[in-house]
């Protein structure tokens, strides 16, 4: 049941096939598996044990994948974290996860180091790069183990990844994903699509995100495809790859798709190697879908998932005409229902909450039994998303019960940004909302009421938040008002907020 069995099986089957292509060279599946074994020996020598929890906070890279599969083989639990997170965002994750080890990159150590120094249970500190701070072991020196690393027995219910995801209130919740949930979801998705052994997967999604982890990495390794990897999305380089490769697959969020379309206007590709594109992470505007398919002569299959589902549970089926605006049908092994507030199925065409059942569901929210019981009821995961179904069973997302903002495929949680705003001494009240954006899907906006007599500008407030959260989270739009609309009970009424003067 170990997720690393994907790598072991593929390395045995096609050891000389390229696994990862990157700026520095090529790594075959045989070499990748050998390096994972060597690293697992090294990590164990350093003191990491089965069931220990390890923070993995590095940008997407071959080393990220080696650490990921080495931890899997060891039976260690991984907590992937965005390397752009700041001290305030990391504190809860580091403490709540109970992490005993940390693996990072020297270029991204400033913020986590501040948290690690006050988190005594993180005993083991490892980093990629040169000139490391005191107390950090060089990652490169841990690849000296020799021989196969024996993978211990893995029970289907054994946790492997804890991925932190927030609702609209409270602290981030750690979704506990088991080896079996991650394996099951990856295998289920492959039953939907047709690939060839020589296909190149254009890996532009961050691997710390469940979408990139499952689609760009685990599915590719399971199938034995070559991953062409970038640390981050660069539209010009991806467009060039689409033109120069023979056959490619692209997993992307709508913002990436839109930027490729816009770039192709000024630099039309001479040819397109795309076999197909999967769009996930946010709703894809129908107009952008049509323009992409016309430009690159490839079908986009819109997909839907959640971290709590490992992530994919609904997708437009490969080989059939995709239905623009629809997220598709439940993938093999999964079921979907649309229900009212009493968990009773609504009629076809009516709007209700989308709930999911299937083998990819999370085990629980770490240390949060009440949140787990609220989300997982009678084996069904309640997504918080409002949806409807057409006469053929295709599902359409209508709105979200949650107030989460999806900016360029990244989740932004209003409550988190509001908490930062409220820490500013001049802010009396504040509300964060999402507003439509042609490129990003949604932009983060804040409406604030200042304390009487102060003259803090929107620019100053913007910089204040920017200094305290990851770059994609801070509100680009800030409006100061004299009062915020309220409900009869005195709560801020977000739907009544207007950004117009």
* Total DSSP helices: 13
Q: Write the CATH homologous superfamily of the largest domain.
A: ANL, N-terminal domain
Strand content: 25-35%
Q: Stretches where pLDDT falls below 50 for ≥5 residues? A: none
Q: Tally the structural domains.
A: 3
Strand order of the largest sheet: 2-1-11-10-12-13-14-15-16
Structural class by secondary-structure content: alpha/beta
- Main sheet specs: 9 strands, mixed
Distance between the amino and carboxyl termini: 58 Å
Strand runs, count: 27
Summarize the structure in words.
The protein is an alpha/beta fold and 501 residues long. It has 3 domains: 28-154, Rossmann fold, CATH 3.40.50.980; 183-400, ANL, N-terminal domain (Rossmann fold), CATH 3.40.50.12780; 405-496, ANL, C-terminal domain (GMP Synthetase, Chain A, domain 3). The protein has helices spanning 5-13, 29-46, 62-74, 87-97, 110-116, 179-190, 210-223, 235-244, 254-266, 286-296, 369-375, 414-422, 458-466, and strands at residues 18-22, 25-28, 53-57, 77-80, 101-105, 124-128, 137-138, 159-165, 173-178, 200-203, 226-229, 248-252, 274-279, 299-305, 312-315, 329-330, 335-339, 352-357, 364-365, 376-377, 380-389, 395-400, 405-407, 410-412, 427-437, 441-450, 477-480. The strands form 6 sheets. The protein has a 9-stranded mixed sheet, with helices on both faces. A hairpin with a 2-residue loop joins β20 and β21 (380-389). α1 runs antiparallel to α2 and α2 packs across α3. The mean pLDDT is 93.
